[in-house]
């Protein structure tokens, strides 16, 4: 037989073997153990290896051979991505589907929680407690300073202001440190390089911006008026007028009043911006991105005053005389 024919035959046979092998592997990965839909719980403990998970899947009858699960996961580069937690799986799922579920952490024990814009540390503690993620007071009594020194790039000693408002998913077994780290990482992502560059350009620091943003967040009735309110506060800071923010008074008293009483505005606290000029010692809430942007890019305005009527939109004034007139007109 001509040697070229032999080579050709070899290539044909080899190609056939490769093709057959390819489809055999695809069959192993894509074909479920059973066509019967029957859900069952499957738990991955923290620290379990790919080998242990594969063997456990085979033992539970969710896959035929642990080898093919390991083969697929290693081929995808997911060995380090399989997440601990409780899952709902079925023998009617293929290796591909099971691997994707485990790599994406689609657990049934996920707890979804929303932190609204303007929530304080105390309110976040209460919400985490309500869903069973922490014991009451766990966040408030947490050693924030030590944690932040080790885990935050910002020069801060308190979490207030830096727990970014958003919707989060946590596992029931997440530690408080893991919860805080996830929220802080989100803050880090949301504060873009452009925003950081603008803060630096203005020769300010992130702590100052977040402190102002937290006040703007709790003073503004709408996102649209945030830049104007930030502009008012910027004007007052520039000429040395006290901010006289009612939101800072509410932070001290724990009340939620549109118009604090005169007695409340006289309370002795460094957070009392009626008594003390400049920004308070730190943020009074955890502001959203709109408030942060407003603090970075305040609207240029001639306003130095504003008030909140009990029923109606915010009213702005340029002079004290105009402001007093508006108080007589809009406030009881």
UniProtKB/TrEMBL annotation:
<keyword id="KW-0456">Lyase</keyword>
<dbReference type="GO" id="GO:0009252">
    <property type="term" value="P:peptidoglycan biosynthetic process"/>
</dbReference>
<dbReference type="InterPro" id="IPR003770">
    <property type="entry name" value="MLTG-like"/>
</dbReference>
<feature type="site" description="Important for catalytic activity">
    <location>
        <position position="219"/>
    </location>
</feature>
<keyword id="KW-0961">Cell wall biogenesis/degradation</keyword>
<feature type="transmembrane region" description="Helical">
    <location>
        <begin position="7"/>
        <end position="26"/>
    </location>
</feature>
<keyword id="KW-0472">Membrane</keyword>
<dbReference type="GO" id="GO:0071555">
    <property type="term" value="P:cell wall organization"/>
</dbReference>
<dbReference type="Pfam" id="PF02618">
    <property type="entry name" value="YceG"/>
</dbReference>
<dbReference type="GO" id="GO:0005886">
    <property type="term" value="C:plasma membrane"/>
</dbReference>
<comment type="function">
    <text>Functions as a peptidoglycan terminase that cleaves nascent peptidoglycan strands endolytically to terminate their elongation.</text>
</comment>
<keyword id="KW-1133">Transmembrane helix</keyword>
<keyword id="KW-0812">Transmembrane</keyword>
<protein>
    <recommendedName>
        <fullName>Endolytic murein transglycosylase</fullName>
        <ecNumber>4.2.2.29</ecNumber>
    </recommendedName>
</protein>
<keyword id="KW-1003">Cell membrane</keyword>
<dbReference type="GO" id="GO:0008932">
    <property type="term" value="F:lytic endotransglycosylase activity"/>
</dbReference>
<comment type="similarity">
    <text>Belongs to the transglycosylase MltG family.</text>
</comment>
């Amino acid at each position: 037989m001509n040697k070229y024919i032999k080579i050709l035959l070899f290539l044909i046979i080899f190609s056939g073997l490769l093709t057959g092998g390819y489809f055999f592997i695809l069959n192993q990965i894509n074909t479920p153990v059973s066509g019967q839909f029957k859900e069952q719980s499957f738990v991955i403990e923290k620290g379990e290896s790919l080998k242990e998970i594969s063997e456990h899947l085979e033992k539970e009858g969710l896959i035929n051979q642990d080898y093919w699960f390991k083969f697929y996961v290693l081929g995808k580069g997911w060995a380090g991505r399989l997440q601990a937690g409780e899952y709902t799986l079925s023998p009617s799922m293929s290796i591909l589907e099971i691997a994707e579920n485990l790599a994406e952490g689609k657990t049934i024990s996920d707890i979804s929680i929303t932190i609204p814009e303007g929530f304080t540390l105390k309110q976040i503690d209460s919400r985490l407690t309500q869903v069973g993620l922490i014991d009451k007071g766990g966040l408030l009594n947490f050693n924030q300073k030590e944690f932040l020194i080790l885990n935050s790039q910002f020069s801060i000693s308190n979490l207030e202001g830096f727990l970014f408002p958003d919707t989060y998913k946590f596992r029931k077994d997440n530690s408080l440190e893991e919860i805080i780290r996830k929220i802080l990482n989100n803050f880090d992502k949301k504060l873009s390089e452009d925003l950081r560059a603008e803060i630096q350009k203005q020769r300010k620091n992130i702590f100052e911006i977040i402190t102002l943003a937290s006040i703007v967040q709790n003073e503004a009735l709408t996102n649209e008026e945030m830049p104007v309110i930030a502009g008012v506060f910027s004007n007052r800071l520039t000429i040395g007028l006290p901010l006289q923010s009612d939101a800072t008074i509410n932070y001290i008293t724990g009340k939620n009043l549109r118009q604090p009483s005169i007695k409340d505005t006289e309370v002795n606290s460094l957070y009392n911006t009626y008594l003390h000029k400049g920004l308070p010692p730190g943020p009074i809430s955890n502001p959203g991105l709109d408030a942060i942007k407003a603090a970075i890019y305040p609207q240029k305005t001639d306003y130095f005053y504003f008030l909140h009527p009990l029923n109606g939109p915010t009213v702005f004034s340029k002079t004290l005389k105009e402001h007093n007139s508006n108080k007589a007109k809009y406030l009881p």
